[in-house]
Amino acid sequence: MHTERDLAIGKHDALIVVDVQNDFLPGGALAVNDGDAVIPLINECMRLSTAKRLPIYATRDWHPVGHCSFVKNGGTWPNHCVADSPGAQFAEDLALPDDVIIVNKGTDSDKEAYSGFQGTDLSDQLHANGVKRVIIGGLATDYCVLNTVNDALANGFDVVLLTHAIRAVDLNSGDGDRAIASMRERGAKIHDGSVLTD
Ligand code: VGL
Ligand code: ZN
Fold this sequence. Notes:
By secondary structure, the protein is of the alpha/beta class. It has a single domain, classed as Isochorismatase-like (Rossmann fold, 3-Layer(aba) Sandwich), CATH 3.40.50.850. The protein has helices at residues 39-51, 122-128, 141-154, 175-186; strands at 4-8, 13-18, 56-61, 101-105, 133-139, 158-167, 189-197. It has a seven-stranded parallel β-sheet with strand order 1-7-6-5-2-3-4, sandwiched between helices. Helix 3 links the parallel strand 5 and strand 6 (158-167). The longest helix has 14 residues, at 141-154. Pyrazine-2-carboxylic acid binds at residues 19, 24, 30, 61, 69, 77, 114, 139-140, 143-144.
């Protein structure tokens, strides 16, 4: 698969950190295998972004207890990321800057919202900030990353997907790899995150 070797970030770029929350980390209610491995690279990206004064958005799953995605309410997932609960907090080691812009999603009981754009003003905020390209990492590849990337493309943004900074649920084996292939087909640029440049 073709990947860019260097990623130079600059003007008109923004970073979107997807759902790096306790419930998606090992030991969490909806643990993503190796989920905590995304944190160092995302921290590095946030450091570079902050140095360049680029905006950083952090989405979080922020469900009411009666959320339709929970098994007890007829959905497919165990209870997770209940608003204000410890499981919904950002990972402790995630070095979010003070001026991070937090985007809550999945806040309506009767609507699933895997994408950070769904039911939020993220697209308007990005456009208002002059953002043209978004750099995306986080959890989980086959759900919230996939849908956030697709909506970013649909809203007219260029997308760089940091494939070393995402991990999949893989409910069916290969889901994560198929998600990456489909994001790439839709136009997301793949970056393996090994070389970030100033
Ligand atoms: C997610 C399943 C349910 C995710 C959120 O962040 O990818 N997955 N809710
Ligand atoms: Zn959820």
